[in-house]
Amino acid sequence: MNLTDTSALVTGASSGIGRSIALALAQAGADVLVHCRQSVEEGQKVVDCIRSYGQKSAILTGDLRNPEACQLLLEQAWDLTDGINVWVNNAGSDILTGSGAALPFEEKLNTLLEVDLTATMLLSRAVGQRMKQHQGGVILNMGWDQAETGFEGDSGQLFSASKAAVMAFSRSLALTLAPEVRVNCLAPGWIKTQWGEQASEVWQERAQSEAPLKRWGKPDDVAAAAVFLCSSEASFMTGQIVRVNGGAVR
Prior knowledge:
alpha/beta; Rossmann fold
């Protein structure tokens, strides 16, 4: 999967799945812009790593809860390149760890809808129009495998609402932008990011037992799927929800 002569941008790329996707795209030959909200030091480490692969990179910051910041990110990305070929909407609100975990339900819902859904929609639509005018490109969004099956508790309700909307939007956008632009959506399952590292033994056992492959997924597993969907090898795939969940069927 060769992404030479590809310019990509990954939102929320300073850590976790976004970081792995940015690095994997660069290893496949793409120049990659790294977006983060405020983790500039960590974001710069990702930029430095991409440059060590011989690819071009730069860090862009912006709070995607603000529609004006979304528009500015788009304009900066195009200013720094000859045009973005691959755009990955990975950024999402953390309501499971840190201060976000203590927010009341309504505030968690608002922040998820602002970042995970609204920003994804605004950026995808604007990026898609530019790509369509330039006769090509790939947009990759981030869903959740259990949005389609349900998951108990407050977090299940919150993420199901926001991620199911992203998945449905991605299908419709794919129809709107075809045939010039492909739009797909990844739906990760139990992936060991920051929350997974801190999860109790009960959650550790559940994550491993629900996947036929009997292990947590890794950010690199999601990144490998992302590289494929962004490459020419997936040129006949659009409007698809691709589960990366160890084969879990609920």
